[in-house]
Amino acid sequence: MSNHPVQVIAITGGKGGVGKSNVSINLGMCLSEIGRRVVLLDADLGLGNLDILLGISSRENLSHVLKGECGIKDILVEGPGGIKIVPASSGTQELVSMGPREHAGLIHAFSELSDDVDVLLIDTAAGISEMVMSFVTAAQESLFVVTNEPTSITDAYAMMKILNQKHGIYRFNVVANMVRTQQEGREIYNKLTKVTDRFLDVALQFSGCIPFDDYLRKAVMRQKPVVEAYPRSKAALAFRSLANKVDSWPLPTTPRGHLEFFVDRLVQGAVAR
Fold it and tell me: For residue 101, is pLDDT > 80?
C-alpha cells in the first residue's frame, strides 16, 4: 500500500441539472492553483460530459481500461490549470450496467495513480443508482450540490437518507449553487437541515455558495472553466473560496486516507450490491 494520502471527494446531489460538473471542474482547478495535484474522475459512466464542457478529447476512455486494453494513466487527459481528467465513455450502455467484476477491475486500476495525486474529485451521475452510491460511500467526503428548487432539496435529502440509514454515513458537506444572494444560499442550507435534523441522525456542514453568474454561462459556451475564462467574476471568486474551505478539511492519516482503501471500499460495495 502506498503511504501517500489522497483526499477522495464525491461531488453529488441526487438531482440532475444542479451544476455538479461545473462545480467539479472549477473546484478542481482552484485546488490546483493552490498547489494540490488534482485528478477529476467523470463517474457518469453512461453520459459523461466533462470532456465536452472542457472542449477536450481522448482516444481512450474508461471502456478501454475495462477491456484491459490500457491502464488508467494511458487515458488521463490534461485539463486546464494542470488538472488531470479521467474521461468516461458517453453513451456506452455496458458501463452503466457493468457487474461487480468489471467494476472491481475498473477501480483497481486507480491504484496506479496513488503517488501522483493529492485530491481525487469524483463527478457522480445524477440519481441514486447503485453506481452513484458505490462512489459516494467509498469516498472520504461528499459534497452535495443543491439549488433553490424543491426537487433539488428533496432529492438531496432522499440520497442522504439512504447513505445514512443503509451505509452508516452521517457527515455531509453542502454547497448552494446558482443563488442570487448569500442569504438565499444560507436559506437553502437551512431548508435541508430542517428536514435532516427532524428525521435523520446526520451532521451537515455548510461549505458556502456559488452565485448565479452570467459569466459562468458564457464560460460554458466557450468550453472553459469560469475561473480561467473570467477569473474576477463573482462565480470564480466563490469557487476559490470553496476551494480554500475544502483544502482546510482534515486529511486522514490512517489507511482510510490512502487511495487503495478507496479502491477496496468501492469494490466491496459493488460486490455487496
Answer: no
What nine digits make up the cell of 102? 468489471
- Report how far residue 187's alpha carbon sits from residue 26's, in angstroms, rounded to the nearest whole number: 24
User: Which CATH number covers residue 115?
Assistant: 3.40.50.300
Please give the Cα distance from 121 to 124 (Å, whole number): 9
**Grid cell for residue 149:** 428548487
Find the helix packing angle between 234-247 and 214-221, rounded to 10°: 90
Domain count, the chain: 1
Does the pLDDT value for residue 232 go beyond 70?
Answer: yes
In terms of residue numbers, what domain contains 268?
7-272
Q: Cα separation of 42 and 182, whole Å? A: 29
Say if pTM beats, i.e. exceeds, 0.70.
Answer: yes
Write the CA distances from 39 to 9, 189, 194, 233, integer angstroms: 11, 28, 34, 25
> What is the C-alpha to C-alpha distance for residues 196 and 158, in angstroms, rounded to an integer?
10
User: Does 2 reside within a domain?
Assistant: no
- Which are the contacts of 78, defined by CB distance < 8 A and separation ≥ 6? 56, 84, 85
Q: Do the domain assignments include residue 221?
A: yes
Q: In this predicted model, what pLDDT tens digit does every residue of 49-59 receive, in sequence order?
A: 787 788 887 77
Residue 1 lies in a domain: no
